[in-house]
């Protein structure tokens, strides 16, 4: 005991004593055949000690004196009550101190609370990684020896809905150099299981970071009125201008873009245009088609692109007229690309940013098969988005190559990014 008191004056000595105690406990646990996790395991026992000590400390603060220092005061301890809580170390049986006038409100484990917050965070994290409620329940039972029902897991994940609503209505930047709009199809059971699109808007900020602006559910029959509502929502949240909007032939979207942001350039997604071309062709012809289309989208001018496309049509129209018709119909939204600097072309033609997001979303939604409601599907997609790039490594890679592109945007869209730049430098 004297050694512990001496150690208390020296933080390094205290750490050494603490480490020694932990090793002693671990050695004792091994000798007794005690498991590390699960009910009754070493971590559960340590968690019990820590929680109960914290509760006693809270009671001391509440009463204003220690456990054996009543000193004639009106309120006093009044025994304890047993309670089982689920922790990250497994189920733990604890005793909660009570006071005589029942005014004690513990904070570390609140009244009627049956799970510590870390467990809720774990459930939400597992859900974001694509695990179903049944898989999460099985995981908790296997790893922690805890029985958590699917309904309870759904209740826990439903708590993110308030956060999703706040995220969906948060203020946005006044201007974005580039805005990508894409969709991921999910299966929703509405009488029968059917594919329903969820649209994702991903912006590139003036700083070169990626910002997911929101999620919108559709029914597959969207038109100009639908897109007017979506874009007006983005504008009402603060975005007064967008330089380039990259999309993939969504009906009514180009008209809505022109109405909401008159100066914005609507650019068809080159990668999607290529992929859609391959849909009409035999796989063995894909390399040759890709080779013959490359001079079209790498042309130095629109006239050079027209000449290259004429050569492509001469070669392939007889066999694949649908490909020629696809490019002809998309030509108006394709040609703006040809007027841009190489650095801008790299940003708007490389869909890696949104494709990595879509890939993460697809893994999460495919794990579930289908959803009972549209809201359940949106919750799943939102959780998947919130789990993206937790280390920030992807953001660093993106911003590292942004500076040269920013100069090109400044020259091409002169003056339109200045208000935002001034805001950042002030």
Automatic annotation (TrEMBL):
GO terms for molecular function: DNA binding; transposase activity. The keyword DNA-binding applies. It comes from the Bacteria. InterPro entries: Transposase_mutator. Coiled coil: none annotated. Keywords: DNA recombination, DNA-binding, Transposable element, Transposition. GO terms for biological process: DNA transposition. The keyword Cell cycle does not apply. Belongs to the transposase mutator family. Required for the transposition of the insertion element. NCBIfam families: transpos_IS256. This is Mutator family transposase. It comes from Longispora fulva.
